[in-house]
Every structure is written in structure tokens, then in C-alpha cells.
Amino acid sequence: MPVCKACGAERKLIQAHIIPKAWSPTIDQDGRPPKIISDNGFPKRAPIGIYDSDIVCAECEKVFAKLDDYATKALLTGQRESVFDIAFAYPCADRLTILKFVASLMLRANWSDQDAYRKVKLGSYTEKLRGLVFHDAPVTEIDVIISEYDQGSVPWFGPYKQRMDQARFWVLSAARFAFWIKVDQRKLPSEFSGISLRTGVKLLSVIREWKSSKQKKSMADLARKVQAKFGPLWKSHS
Ligand SMILES: [Zn+2]
User: How far is the CA of 136 from the centre of ligand 1 (A)?
Assistant: First the structure.
């Protein structure tokens, strides 16, 4: 019997989406599957909704499915309000539930053997993320910031690592969003505290222009802009 990576039990494992179907890149106007930008920079076509059949048992998949449903309703298709064209606020989305959803995506990517996720290695953070997703463990080192592109249909990027002010992040793309997941004991750089899922006041997603791209710089600039406008408003709990 195979072993479920989430609960450790010997059980039949079931097919699980790494990125939930609703969050997978969509078919383009010509009916072709989406592009994946690979390491060598050449786009290739991706199968719709990458899934893996040797990660979790049916019980553990239910935990993922519940988070997926919530995030789809609250974030992907949820009500959003423009904040001066710099960010979107999602008034109906609970920050900490979305944090768990993103952590669960990261775990699935870590456990998957699919090519697209092969690079993802979380090491000791695997246990921390598992504790957070399956047992509500208070893991304060893990934090998430969210950005989204200003157009809906963008190529899908495989996960990559990024450092900001020394702190290590993984960046995961899903639908129009990019999730920046801090897996580090170092604190989140201060310019991001207002948009952090852990310390922000409301759930905010920073809008990025699809055309401009240099990840770190554009994210930091945008976060500063947002904070400059709303800084005092966001300085409540930390
Ligand atoms: Zn299980």
C-alpha cells in the first residue's frame, strides 16, 4: 500500500490537482492548451490542470478541496474593489484561510513528482506547512503576499525561488495570481507588511502590469506605492 504524504497512513491514494482546476491556466482563444514558460525561456504547451495521483488519500484530499472551494469563491471569482488602480481589496476573503490555501498549493507542489514542480524542495518547511494546513499549527515564519496581473490570460510560470531583503520566498503562479510565499525565519521586509496575509488589515492583491516584469523590483516598488498611500491605515496589528 502506498503512503499518504499528508497523514502518513498506508492507504489508496487518489488523483489530486496540484493547482485546482479552476485556477489552472485556461485554453487560449484558439482552443489550445496554455503555455508554460520553461527554465530555458521557451514556451511550451501545458496539459490542462496538472495533477498527481500519488500524493494524498481521499481524506486528506478533502482538506485540499475545501480550501480550493473557499479560495475559488472568495478570491478567484470573489468580489473585489480597486484601490486606486494599484491593488484590489477582497472584502469577503478571510486572510488566514487564504494563507492556508496558498500553503496547501505549496505543499502539493513540493510533494508532486510532475516535471513542472520538480524544482520545488521545501526541506524542513514541509512539516511546518503540513502542520499549518492540516492541524492549524501556528507557524508564524510562513507568510504570503499576493499579486495579480492586470490581464486575465497570462502564461503560466513554474514555481521559482526569490529572495527579498534576504528572506526566501517561493513564487507560485495560479490563474491571474502570483503567490509569494515566505519560507524563512527572517521577517517580511517592512514595505510588505501592509499587504501580508498575516499582518495586513484586509486582503489585498497588488496589481502588476503584465508588460513590465522584473519581479523583485516591480513588487517592491508597488508595495511601497501602496504603503505610501495607505500606510497609517495598515499599521494596526502585527
Ligand atoms: Zn492522508
Answer: 16
